[in-house]
Each structure stands twice: as structure tokens, then as C-alpha cells.
Amino acid sequence: MIEDEEVILHGIKLYQPDLSYHSLSIAFQLKDIETDTDFYIAFNSYSEQLCFELPKLENKSWYLLTDTSKVDSCSFEEIKWNDSSYCVLSKSSVILISK
Predict the structure, then answer these.
(1) Distance (Å, rounded) from C-alpha 5 to C-alpha 31?
(2) Is Transport one of the keywords (predicted)?
């Protein structure tokens, strides 16, 4: 536990990170207790798209903050994401924020 923050590791399945030396993906959730904000960050170094399950939020939704596969539109404009998963393209990463 980091002061006023909580870090939860995930893999493509919630709460199941692959921490092996040959793993090519990881995701984590940062919970800022003070501001009641969650961040979900996923990295995909695999050669194909991977779909990551998103944690459920109480009375909030996930908003896509950035997706590095969309370099041309990497504007940090928050887009509401209603699905229970997010597919991350090969060699890309994403950041979602709770609101």
C-alpha cells in the first residue's frame, strides 16, 4: 500500500497477472483514495491484440484517456467506455480513468 493509493495488478483476466519472465502483457489499477479516482493502465507487448477485462466500478464509469495505437488521435480527450473489457492492439498501451 502506497500512502493514499492502492495498486492492484491484473492480467487479461482481473486479479490474474502473469508475472512470469516471458509474459508480454500486464495491467494494473491505481486507486487514489484521497480523490476517489481510479486509473486502469494496460500494456500489450505481444504480437497480437489482447482483450483485458476491466474492473467494475460502483456509481462510476471508465473513460478512455489515451490509447497509444491511435497516435494520430492521441489527444487525451476522455471518451466514455461502456464495455466490460478493452482490446489493446499489439505493442500498445492504454490508460482509462474513472468518473
Answers:
(1) 5
(2) no
**C-alpha distance across the termini of the chain, in Å:** 22
Residue 65, SS3 per DSSP: strand
- 48-84 tens-digit pLDDT: 999 999 999 999 999 999 999 987 766 667 889 999 9
Residue 76 backbone class (left: φ over 0; alpha: ψ -120 to 50; beta: rest): left
In a 10 Å sphere around its CB, with 0-12 CB exposed, 13-18 middle and 19+ buried, how is residue 31 labelled? middle
- Predicted TM-score of the model (pTM): 0.89
Return the CATH number of 7-98, one of 2.60.40.1180, 3.40.50.170, 1.10.3720.10, 3.40.50.920.
Answer: 2.60.40.1180
Contacts of 46 (CB under 8 A, 6+ apart): 24, 25, 90
Q: Domain ranges in the chain?
A: 7-98
